[in-house]
Design brief:
177 residues, 5 helices, 2 domains, two-stranded antiparallel ribbon, alpha+beta, three-stranded antiparallel β-sheet
């Protein structure tokens, strides 16, 4: 049987707290799991992270009983993708069209992200990042690198990423090459 207790608020103020007598204690792990899913959604929105990276960042700090209360990974990934689609649909500014040939120009609004561009040819290399992260990369004790052929637009051949610990936070930042 579902709990019929309700707490009505207006802003930060309680308006009505008429509740029937409770006969249960609630499930703290389920509540914390719902909060963790919300944190994953916020992380995706703030950092434009992938579902997998937002899950990893939040789940690494959860206790075992909360991890057990989370939905299956496939269900959680699907919910995070839907959330990202909703957020993307509400953007007021559309993204530029994908390039169709090697002579494309990076739009001016993204030009400050380009650290190096070898120019349009068959072996074009574009390095993206920002000076703050480049400085962090220079100071990092450990770099982790990865590359993929699968998740890049068809115009590109391969995507390399360099990950490192940035500051006191344990979150990994990355450069995209």
């Amino acid at each position: 049987m579902k709990c019929r207790a309700r707490l009505v608020t207006a802003g930060n103020r309680v308006v009505s707290d008429r509740q029937p007598e409770h006969n249960h204690a609630g499930n703290v792990a389920s509540a914390l799991a719902r909060k963790a899913v919300g944190d994953m959604k916020n992380r995706m929105t703030e950092l434009t992270a992938t579902p997998a990276s937002s899950q990893a960042a939040v789940m690494s700090n959860l206790d075992d009983h909360v991890l057990m209360a989370l939905p299956k990974r496939s269900t959680l990934t699907q919910a995070l993708r839907r959330h990202r689609q909703k957020v993307t649909a509400t953007l007021s500014r559309p993204l530029p069209a994908l390039p169709t040939d090697l002579s494309f120009q990076v739009p001016d609004e993204f030009a400050d992200l380009i650290l190096y561009d070898s120019g349009p040819d068959d072996n074009r290399i574009i390095i993206m990042g920002c000076p703050e992260l480049l400085d962090g990369l220079a100071r990092a004790d450990l770099w982790l690198a990865d590359g993929t052929f699968k998740v890049v637009p068809t115009l590109f051949f391969q995507l390399y990423t360099v990950h490192f610990e940035f500051g006191k936070a344990s979150a990994l930042r990355r450069f995209i090459v």
